[in-house]
User: What shape does this take?
Amino acid sequence: MIFKGLAIPAIVAILFSPALAQELPKTSCRFDFGSADTKIGYIPITAETFYSKDKGYGFLPGASIQSVDRGGDVLKGDFITSDQPFYFTVDLPEGDYDVKVILGDKKGTSEQTVRAECRRMMVYKEVTKSGQQIEKNFTVHIRTPQIAGTGQSVKLKPRELAYFHWDNQLTLEFNGMNPKVAAVEIKRADKPIRLFLAGNSTVVDQASEPFAAWGQMMPAFFEPGKISVANYAESGETLSNFKGARRLEKILSQMRKGDYLFIEFGHNDQKQKGEGIGAFTSYKRDLKYYIAEARKKGGIPVIVTSIQRRNFNENGTINETLGDYPEACRQTAREENVPLIDLNKMTKVLYEAWGPKESETAFAHNPQIDNTHPNPFGAYQMAKCVIKGIQESKLDIARYIVNFDGFDPAKPERISAFYWPLSPSKSTIKPDGN
Assistant: This one.
């Protein structure tokens, strides 16, 4: 027997009336996409289900959404699709969530990518054959600015107030040539290892095209349910500013024993002036503070050297523009017995393998080329360098790496092999720290 509009939290086994049907579960919810009958235990989502605070879920405006009914299976026989990228959002408490999406069409083909929050890559590219439907799983970290138990909050910059990743919602972006979504299921994750990222604009979840950073590509490389990538990086930050804005405090307030803290700064730190400021003085001191604080929480700190700027000399090799800051990272890693991922060295090899001209395809054009900030293609290649570094450093989380067949920066991919349908959000404003 089929009922319309029933929503049953996985954590509470109760029978309830239609009056309770639209109440949103706090940490678990299941949505049946399409206009046909709704499977018991799922909330119905039609093409007209737009977000409201009262419901706590729904599509965001901006795309023309259609519902298609193929008949048959209650859950998979109908789906939502669009010829534009579309967003679905759900109010949820801060934390980590396992998400399952059912994609495809029992009487047709589909092609889609799935991103979360501010363009975090979750499902790179899924193409289903005619009649094929698949389930894809991923884990998402969501957060708010409040720091539990302190009465304090992260000091957000004005532009961050509009970002998807600082609210009490999980927002999914469905994109691609022909996306078809039959269902979305969300439940609280069972204490995955958190991979916290602290960094600047070369790490952050960039909110708008054409910019991207390696941190927002990382979730697609880890086994769902095992690792949750919690990217707290922000454009323009230095080690000291990140700490001063309570971003590190926010990370530490959530850190559990066995979680990781990846630290990549340098681009903005080198611009700081004043007595006692420098790579081997204030920068190393701040690095050691981050390391000590993470260890107090039982966390595992990892130093990541800064990506190179795209700055070629007349010989076709990269000029070292980051001064002593990468070397200060290497020294600190040795002195503190901390794993080091030398992204600075790997990106030098990467850019030179492309050469002065082809390397342009890895950086944002807005419309002039930005030689500091990668585009999605470049960010994806840099994320592969980081994954390679995780394996070479023999970090425990390496056993949870997926969708990765190895990577040689000296033999990089070409942009023609990369799949990234553009997100709707675009900006002509370069990130802080250019």
Remarks:
- The longest strand covers residues 95-104.
- Residues 191-417 form a domain with the Rossmann fold fold (CATH 3.40.50.1110).
- The longest helix spans residues 279-296.
